[in-house]
Structures are given as C-alpha cells and as structure tokens.
Design a protein that fits this description.
Length: 222
C-alpha cells in the first residue's frame, strides 16, 4: 500500500509526522521547486513524484539529472513526463566541472533545493555551496552508522538488529551532514542483502516526502 495515501486511515501520531508545525494543510505556496539527482533505479525519485500526485508532498520536480544514460531513473522520468537531463560523468573532465554544470542546469530549471536520490558520485564544494542547506541525500542506514558504500551490507555484516534509512543535509564529509529525518527497520535473522535492502527501500519511500515537508518549512521561513 502506498504510504500516506489516505490520511483518514492513519493514526494521529502519523498524521502529526506528516503535518509539521506551521503547516496549513494547503501546502507550500508556491510548491517546493525541486531538482533530483539519480544514478540508478530511481525508485525514490518516483516515490517523491507519487507523493506529490497524492497531495502528500507539496512540491514540483523541475528537473531530474542522471549520470548513467538509460538508467531506470531516466526511464521513470520519461514515463512520468518529468524533464530529465543526462550528464554522463565519463564525458566530464573532473568532478568539479560536472558539478558546476549540474548547478547551471538546476538553476536554469528553477530548482530551489536538490535531492540526491541514489546519486552514486561524491559531490564537490561547488555544488554544496551553490545550495547551502538545500542539498539533501538519502542513505540506507541509521547514520552515523555505516556511512559510505553498501550501508545495507555493512549493517548485515555488523550483525545489528535494527537498521534503517536517513535523510540528511550534504556537507563535505561523506554521509556526515546534519540529520533531517530517520526511519528504523528491523533486521531479521534470515535477511539477505536483497531482503533487507527491499525493506529499507520501502521506508525510504515513506521517509523522503516527510523529510522534505519538514525541512521545506525551514527553507520557506528563511
Ligand atoms: C537508496 O537505497 C538510497 O538510500 C541510496 O541509493 C539507493 C537508491 O535507490 N542512496 P533508488 O535508485 O531510489 O531505487
């Protein structure tokens, strides 16, 4: 069942999570103008768009940028009718040049904030400084545990019984920026990397729109 599809069916504590202080029920005016960066499957990108269409997230995705031509995220954007720009990192001289071009495209698209939804590249200061406190990442672990690559595999390897996902602001230190929102996910004794990753993914799809609504209040309050 899609998360938060019917507010009347939710318990009040969940509704409170969805409706941060100051939320007037009408959404942001204008809606949050988002840019999204993705490298692979793009399920978080699509989850954000679905939350927007359900009315759970007051936002517009102005532009998706992908770095792998033909990746799942690009195909989802085509299906959903969302503008998508391909920026193959292999064709760029270095990270800095790629990031400056990213900034240009997002600014041209009118994005006020950017979500890294499965962007598998390290970003430079040029991107971070262009969107101060407005560059978000989603990571498949309860940070500060299991930063970096393969957060799911790291959690399994460590034998933890609870893992989860984190939405955080991006700073120069990898996966170490201020935490915006987290969701916990149980680790089952018979979990494989795939089964745990799927459970975490489902929570990510719920968490990202909630995190955006919360931090969106801060952005709009200046
Ligand atoms: C997610 O697990 C996210 O936490 C990580 O990359 C994955 C992207 O998944 N940063 P998808 O492409 O959105 O399906």
């Amino acid at each position: 069942m899609p998360a938060f599809s019917d507010l009347s069916q939710q318990d009040p504590s969940e509704q409170a999570l969805l409706q941060p202080a100051g939320w007037n029920g009408q959404g942001f005016d204008p809606p949050l103008q988002l840019g999204v960066m993705a490298s692979g499957n793009g399920s978080n990108f699509e989850a954000m768009e679905m939350a927007i269409r359900r009315g759970d997230l007051s936002a517009t995705i102005r532009l998706l940028v992908v770095n792998n031509p033909g990746c799942g995220a690009q195909r989802r954007a085509e299906r959903l009718g969302i503008p998508c720009s391909v920026m193959d990192h292999r064709l760029h001289q270095d990270r800095r040049e790629l990031d400056l071009e990213l900034v240009r495209r997002f600014q041209d698209a009118g994005a006020e904030a950017i979500v890294m939804a499965g962007w598998m590249r390290i970003v430079t200061d040029d991107l971070i400084q262009a969107y101060p406190n407005r560059l978000l990442n989603i990571h498949p672990s309860l940070l500060p545990s299991f930063r970096g690559l393969d957060g799911v595999g790291q959690a399994l390897q460590a034998g933890v019984q609870i893992s989860g996902c984190t939405v955080h602001l991006v700073t120069e230190d990898l996966d170490a920026g201020p935490i915006v929102a987290q969701a916990a996910v149980p680790v089952m004794a018979d979990d494989t990397r795939t089964s745990l990753a799927e459970r975490i993914h489902r929570e990510e799809h719920r968490l990202l729109p909630i995190a955006l609504m919360h931090i969106g209040q801060r952005w709009r309050q200046g």
